[in-house]
Amino acid sequence: QNVSVEVLDHLEHLALVDFRDSEGVERLQKAIQFADQLHEVNTDGVEPMDSVLEDRCLYLREDDVTEGNCTKELLENAREKVEEYFVAPPGNIPLPKLEERDTFLQGS
């Protein structure tokens, strides 16, 4: 399944992922082929569910704070931080404009 340049550009901006090389595009195409298998499942007459657990009674727990004051320890897990904040998504990169795409996408 080929992915058009326009769809690729839209996905990159939504996911903040760079598919600029052919390996990235190939991986995306394989993921789409894998997901396309779901079209083979017959869902005629099957009503959509609100939850996969809709036959069970779900209970809310009390919202009791049992720990905290661990900002320093949590921020040690950050790849990149500014002051006391995580920088997310890590590795956020500027994406190329649609007209700047490499030639490997021209056949898509």
From TrEMBL:
GO BP term (any one): regulation of translational fidelity
Keywords: Transferase
tRNA processing listed as a keyword: no
Entry's Gene Ontology molecular function annotations: transferase activity
GO CC annotation terms, alphabetical: glutamyl-tRNA(Gln) amidotransferase complex; mitochondrion
Pfam families named in the record: GatC
HAMAP family noted in UniProt: GatC
Stored NCBIfam families: gatC
Entry protein name: GATC amidotransferase
Source species: Hylia prasina (green hylia)
Gene label: Gatc
